UniProtKB/TrEMBL annotation:
GO MF terms, alphabetically ordered: heme binding; iron ion binding; monooxygenase activity; oxidoreductase activity, acting on paired donors, with incorporation or reduction of molecular oxygen
Keyword Methyltransferase appears in the UniProt entry: no
Domain of life: Bacteria
Protein name: Putative Cytochrome
PROSITE patterns with a match to the protein in the record: CYTOCHROME_P450
Organism: Streptomyces aurantiacus JA 4570
Presence of the UniProt keyword Methyltransferase in the record: no
Family affiliation: Belongs to the cytochrome P450 family.
Keywords: Heme, Iron, Metal-binding, Monooxygenase, Oxidoreductase
Pfam families: p450
Length: 422
């Protein structure tokens, strides 16, 4: 989904031109926001937890409110956006030249379509199949750590955090020989559809990447039909319930989704999580001293700096949160990252990384309700294996240069993480 901001003057969201009293409380284009959005989230939770933005959408930032919204019957389909400030968004989405992901992906569909698609995909995405990947993930991690050890220092994003999840999802799918680097490039372009986009050239690039990715994926599916194997792509092709199977377009869309979701957010979990540990040496030392902390540590890292910052919903009926009524047909941005730092839920140390935090698994980084992330178990597995082996291999792991962020508002993560390994 691309937010079409082209009809709005750029200065209306920058905060650099408008008088102070006209600057929106939620201003993700403010200087420094993508490096550290948490002060702005804290201000919203305190002063306007259910915020009607001047551009026509709503922002929900408290944990209890967001949990209720995610578990409600609210829609994810943009056709349900009512007329008003966000009508241009709905029109733009309906007029897309290549609406394959938005039209057929399970994350963009409500029940009963979502229920049907998720049930079919889930047949191929079982806990047993995920756990079976552990040895191969370990091999991939060890190979990348070997190269880092030989060099003595590395940028962990291009050397580990980015290539690992892509390699895992490609092998899990059983992708045939193809230009995997091109697929990764297309995935990186397509994920920008989750960001506010005002530049027509960027929007055209996203649509072009969508079309090319769909063509490549369709070719892979046809190859896999001729060469079935014990892998996820074959399982998706063969998935059936009461005679119901995924259509060709649905297959393409789900596989594209798995490439994008299975890669981009896990990159952020690995990079953001490693950075958080390196910036909190007491917690890093605690994890080294007690490896049994790892499962809870992964959830605390997800809570502390969510790989995906928000999730959209469209209200189907008037909805009251924190005493404020959101009308039916409203486009709502649910602040996952904000809810994960909400003091009212997590206590006064919500902004503190604490790997032994009780209840850390209750974070909303994977969403909640019927759209809870299907790949959560895979992301946890990859992060656990990577951190366990990296910390054991490099007892002197340390930051070694300037950390930079990717400049994204929603799929927010570290772009460069230079380290030395002793």
């Amino acid at each position: 989904m691309t937010w079409d901001l082209s009809s709005n003057k750029e200065h209306e969201m920058t905060g650099g031109v408008l008088p102070q009293e006209q600057i929106p409380l939620f201003n993700p284009f403010a200087e420094g926001f993508t490096d550290n959005p948490y002060p702005q989230y804290a201000m919203l939770r305190e002063t306007a937890p259910v915020y009607p933005h001047p551009m026509g959408f709503w922002v929900v930032t408290r944990y209890a409110d967001l949990l209720a919204l995610l578990r409600s019957g609210a829609s994810v389909e943009l056709r349900n956006v009512d007329s008003g400030g966000m009508e241009n968004l709905r029109q733009k989405d309906e007029n897309r030249k290549t609406p394959l992901i938005d039209g057929y992906s399970m994350i963009d569909r409500d029940a009963p379509d979502h229920t049907r698609l998720r049930r079919l995909v889930q047949k191929a995405f079982t806990p047993k199949s995920i756990q079976a990947l552990a040895p191969r993930i370990g091999e991939l991690v060890d190979g990348m750590l070997d190269r880092i050890a030989d060099a003595g220092r590395a940028d962990l994003v291009p050397e580990l955090a980015s290539p690992l999840p892509f390699a895992v999802i490609a092998e899990m799918l059983g992708a045939p020989p193809t230009d995997h680097e091109r697929i990764r490039e297309l995935s990186g372009t397509m994920v920008r559809s989750l960001e506010p986009v005002a530049d027509p050239a960027v929007m055209q690039a996203i649509e072009a990447a969508d079309a090319e990715m769909a063509e490549i994926t369709a070719e892979m599916i046809e190859w896999k039909r001729r060469n079935p194997a014990d892998d996820l792509m074959t399982a998706l092709i063969e998935a059936e319930e009461d005679g119901d199977k995924l259509s060709d377009d649905e297959l393409v869309a789900q596989i594209e989704l798995l490439y994008i979701a299975g890669h981009e957010t896990t990159v952020n979990l690995l990079a953001n999580g490693t950075l958080a540990l390196l910036r909190h040496p007491d917690q890093l030392a605690a994890l080294r001293a007690d490896p049994a902390l790892m499962p809870n540590a992964i959830d605390e890292l997800l809570r502390y700096d969510s790989p995906l910052q928000s999730s959209r919903r469209i209200t189907l009926e008037p909805t009251v949160l924190s005493g404020v009524e959101i009308p039916a047909g409203a486009f709502v941005i649910g602040g996952l990252a904000s809810a994960n730092r909400d003091e009212a839920h997590w206590g006064p140390d919500a902004d503190t990384l604490r790997l032994d935090r009780e209840g850390a698994r209750g974070h909303l980084a994977f969403g909640s309700g019927s759209h809870h992330c299907l790949g959560a178990a895979l992301a946890r597995l990859e992060a656990s294996i990577t951190l366990e082996r990296m910390l054991a291999r490099f007892p002197e792991l340390a930051l070694d240069g300037e950390v930079t962020w990717n400049g994204r508002i929603n799929v927010r993560g570290v772009a460069s993480l230079p380290v030395s390994v002793g």
